[in-house]
Amino acid sequence: MRSVPLRRNTLVLSATLLILAIFAWAGWANWEYRRQEAERLLAGAGQGELVPVPGGGAQYVSPLNGKPAPAFELKDLTGNKVSLASYRGKAVLINFWATWCAPCKLETPWIVELRQKYAAQGFEVLGVDTEGDDLKPDDKAGWAKATAAAGKFVAEEKMPYPVLLDGDSISRDYGGLDDLPTSFFVDRKGVVVAAQVGLTSESDIESKIQKALNQ
Amino acid sequence: MNILKKPFIAMIAALAVAALSAHGQSQSAQSRPLVKTDAVTYLFPEQVSVPVGKPSQVALHFRIAQGLHINSHTPSDEFLIPTEFSIPDGSGVRLAGITYPAGTMIALPIDPTTKLSVYTGEFILQARIVAAAGNHLVQGKLHYQACDQNQCMPPKTINVAFDVIGK
To answer: Exposure check for chain B: N or C terminus, fewer CB within 10 A?
Structure first.
């Protein structure tokens, strides 16, 4: 008879401990969920760093798709100001790159070739160099070095299209540009119709150029 | 007592269901593909003791995130940014020299002919430091530029913090 209350107490104590353990577990699970959700949203805003996905590569859906391409005016290698607005009526590939980016170097010959192929249909490329990511505005020597490196790269790769400097000054408008190469395909009305981050293929770039031309 | 038992059991069941539901949400989040990563992490040592005024070797261990690589100290292309370690002046510890590991030669899948000299996984820098007497919190700097097979991140400098005790 005396063992019954004891057994009941043990049961109640066990149940209480179980409830506490479940609460602790649920609390941790909720915290982890909120943390990952916050990271996901940040990455989705295009402000994150490299974002791996299972199986390799990275995923990128630009928040600019379907919206007017942010306006800009930057200097080219010769010091002339070039604005995106001056290309209204043409399909434009805005290609953000840097000399230190090996995948950028691999895709450049494709872009040069496609530019030649579609120029007659009203297609142009604006190469935007993002060399000076860690340079301060008053670092004249640093900027001179970066500009010289970009000029050498352009000469070696025989890039026939305008190459603009200080791409970092417009990077925020284009979603952060934490990874290169990053390209935006803009239709004749100035609307972003496609975007890509990272190296894909020449055929993929070509299909996006055609989309920009035919919108 | 039987009257009390049923609500008690029901309460336990309700709490368990609520907790399991929360866990289900968490698992759903974990299956999402987007996970931000730092390219390079400093591992150790956190503290070293060295004789005062004498060059002493310290092995600095780093880890590169899975799927990423950084250029070695001697990249294969003049445009690529080398990995470099430095110690700012005024910390009571001077970097007398450093030995970088040789890079591993890799090629991007899309262009097997172009070789890149890189570090992947874990790597060790053999730094030779000279310390003044006393305790010094060294804020070393590692400058690197990371990529995966398709894209690159901008160059970055991370702090490499470790205590140096000069005896």
So the answer is: N
